[in-house]
Amino acid sequence: MSKSIYKRILLKLSGEALAGPQGHGINNDVIKKIAQDVKLAHNTGVQIGIVIGGGNIFRGIAASAQGMDRASSDYMGMLATCINSLALQDALEKEGVATRVQSAIEMAQIAEPYIRRRAVRHLEKGRIVIFGAGTGNPYFTTDTAAALRAMEINAEVLMKATKVDAIYDKDPTKNSDAKPYDKISYIEVLKQGLQVMDSTAISLCMDNKLPIMTFDLAKTGNILKAVQGERIGTLVH
Question: Domain 8-236, what fold?
Answer without folding.
Answer: Carbamate kinase (3.40.1160)
